[in-house]
Amino acid sequence: xxxxxxxxxxxxxxxxxxxxxxxxxxxxxxxxxxxxxxxxxxxxxxxxxxxxxxxxxxxxxxxxxxxxxxxxxxxxxxxxxxxxxxxxxxxxxxxxxxxxxxxxxxxxxxxxxxxxxxxxxxxxxxxxxxxxxxxxxxxxxxxxxxxxxxxxxxxxxxxxxxxxxxxxxxxxxxxxxxxxxxxxxxxxxxxxxxxxxxxxxxxxxxxxxxxxxxxxxxxxxxxxxxxxxxxxxxxxxxxxxxxxxxxxxxxxxxxxxxxxxxxxxxxxxxxxxxxxxxx
Length: 279
Known about the structure:
There is one protein chain. By secondary structure, the protein is α+β, with helices and mostly antiparallel strands. The chain is built from eight helices and ten strands. The protein has two domains: 101 residues, Dihydrodipicolinate Reductase, domain 2 (2-Layer Sandwich); 122 residues, no CATH class. It is 39% helix and 24% strand. The strands form three sheets. It has a four-stranded mixed β-sheet. Strands 6-9-7-8 form a four-stranded mixed β-sheet. A two-stranded antiparallel sheet has the order 2-3. A hairpin with a 3-residue loop joins strand 2 and strand 3.
């Protein structure tokens, strides 16, 4: 199978199949929920995911703006031609799988199309070959993104308050229960990118950094105390998980980005050996 077909299938998998870690946390939330309305909402969410997988249907009508993360090992030569080919394969996957076209010019708007895949390329030294991850980002939740440039003297309490307030402002409008990605450090754009990349982490695995792990746990407790609940119906579960990624920053700054995902956090990854890379 050529890479184009693999990427087209990757698009389908990301949009039709809910991630296993997200599904696990939803099932856990359903078991623990006592509020009848909230429990019913979680039941509908789980049933929707089951039908989507069985019938090869989109989990959500908003199939998102496709964000693609390309990681190239040291044995792979990356060119603009390769990146363009990957982006075109993603667009083709959207069209062939009858997923909604949602991309428009930011100012002229116009008729939606599939052209406008957002790509990020990085070169990790930890593996060989090519790794492609697609994150279809719906804009009901993307519109709730927040960025704050804190003074470097800001304490964790101030940062926590900002993140909790960001979720509070989102309220039920971005389809909770949420997964919250947090980016801390770098420049303003780095913080927001880190926040989005945080959503790609395995939600079942605790953060290896003790400080970040404890911060994630505190944030989960505080956000769930808002009692927004599934689809805004109250109950215990407003957030399924909080994930944080950090990067070094300037001595005069402390950027913090918040990227919210709805309960349908969709992403899928494929790894391709160098010898198989051809379009």
